[in-house]
Amino acid sequence: MTQPANNAPLDFFWFIPTHGDGSYLGSERQQRPQEFAYFREIAQAVDRLGFPGVLLPTGQSCEDSWITAAGLAAHTERLKFLVALRPGVTSPVFAARQTAALDRLSNGRLLLNVVVGGNPVELAGDGVFLPHDERYEQAAEFLTIWRQLVSGETVNFEGKHYRVEGGRLDLLPAQDKPPLYFGGSSDAGQELAAEQVELYLTWGEPVAQVAEKIERARRKAAARGRQLRFGIRLHFIVRETEDEAWAAADRLISKITDEQIEIAQSRFLKEMDSVGQRRMAELHGGRRDKLVVAPNLWAGVGLVRGGAGTALVGSPQSIAARIREYQAIGIDTIIGSGYPHLEEAYRVAELLFPVLGLDGQRRTPRRSIENEFGVGFYGNKRLQAAS
């Protein structure tokens, strides 16, 4: 993509809602089910609009990210796919074979999102029973083996969690080393990031909190002689005016009941052991009157949604100003989403991309269009306002 106005590099990804989509949180009204045809619509739209990649989520309620990405790769041209690499749920050797196959199938368009897990109840359903910090120890061993395999090495490894003898890949990925993305706010998570990954992700906290978090991660990486890139996961509600945007935000959560909020917040704080999830929940404490947590940063999504719970809300100019604040502290990648994801992808590309200096719709054949949407010409006659 081209450079934004302040000349700092910026990649703006989108999201494939493999757990379902809709116009209202907390309601089945105008809900869109998990259908591959709909995922394909979104993927083809964002590929055409100029988003360089998409995140596919993982979890019990989601379609499998690897299989879905394989299907979508056949229907897109440039789009990259950020899929979940899950230590503990699968073996490192099998994951390396999957990596190589999907990367070759997609012509080098695979990115990996390392997910160690934050919900012990869901992890137990997957057969994972390790406590929080020990899961990160296991992940470090997993990634050590995985990285050696996708680099073409023969692996002999014996650790606390894994033993491999003569492991190898006969068919390697198209890329030299498919990049690893990872988000984790705990000390154990940051140690893993500092040692193993290329890009460290954070959920959308206020700028000062994000700055403190990435500075800690940067120092940990530097102590190992490494450098990290940084990204942020946010929802977006962008409209032509501030009033329109905030009205859309209110509408999105207008069907949520107090009971739904109470159930969701109890689960986030009592059932999960994720430090990042706790930080998200603490931004608003489940209170509807505490949802604006920083300029243009709104925590309404996190009333009932786990994971990314904040949105940038406002006009293209105000949201671009907030993005540049994140860029100033080191963020170079945004993973965005919005409800519904198809329509909001168009709004972001058409309204926000031009303000950020991103190229957006790359296939526009020419700027001057001779129809009712532009001020064009038919022959030598200018279109009249009264036509």
Please tell me about this protein's structure.
The protein is α/β, with parallel strands linked by helices and 387 residues long. It has one domain (11-382): Alpha-Beta Barrel (TIM Barrel), CATH 3.20.20.30. It is 39% helix and 18% strand. The chain contains 12 helices and 17 strands. The chain has helices spanning 36-49, 65-73, 92-105, 120-125, 132-150, 187-196, 207-222, 242-252, 258-271, 275-282, 316-328, 341-356; strands spanning 11-15, 21-22, 31-32, 53-55, 80-85, 110-114, 155-158, 163-167, 180-183, 199-203, 229-238, 292-294, 297-298, 311-314, 331-337, 377-378, 381-382. The protein has an 8-stranded parallel barrel with strand order 1-4-5-6-9-10-11-15, surrounded by 8 helices. Strands 2-3 form a two-stranded antiparallel ribbon. Helix 1 packs parallel to helix 12 and helix 6 (187-196) crosses helix 7 (207-222). The longest helix has 19 residues, at 132-150. The protein is globular, with a radius of gyration of 22 Å. Residues 1-5 and 379-383 have low confidence and may be disordered. Catalyzes the desulfonation of aliphatic sulfonates. Keywords: Flavoprotein, FMN, Monooxygenase, Oxidoreductase. GO terms for molecular function: alkanesulfonate monooxygenase activity. InterPro entries: Alkanesulphonate_mOase_FMN-dep (IPR019911), Luciferase-like_dom (IPR011251), Luciferase-like_sf (IPR036661), SsuD_RutA_monooxygenase (IPR050172). It is an enzyme of class 1 (oxidoreductase).
